[in-house]
Design goal:
about 70% helix, about 0% strand, mainly alpha
Length: about 90
């Protein structure tokens, strides 16, 4: 399957777990498990964005590549939910 439709399907698939995360009470074991599923899906969305070559803005790169690197780098740096919460509340 081409990268853009497959990326869209995975992103749409992540909507379900994301909705559950917003609805469920904090601290529930199922919420933690569903959170890991959501993270895995979103990593797949970010990684698949790196394979999109149909849109070329800057040579062989495009803004989707930048948007794909941001979550991957923050995940690699160990961004925690509490750090994300603090940055959202500060801004």
């Amino acid at each position: 399957m081409p990268p853009i439709p497959s990326r869209a399907l995975v992103a749409i698939g992540a909507l379900g777990p994301g909705k559950v995360q917003l609805i469920r009470a904090k601290g529930a074991n199922s919420r933690r498990f569903i959170g890991w599923i959501w993270i895995a899906l979103m990593v797949q969305v970010a990684v698949s964005g790196l394979s999109i070559r149909e849109i070329r803005t800057f040579g062989s790169y495009n803004p989707i590549h930048i948007l794909s690197f941001v979550p991957l780098i923050s995940l690699a740096l160990g961004g925690s939910p509490s750090a994300a919460e603090e940055s959202m509340l500060a801004g």
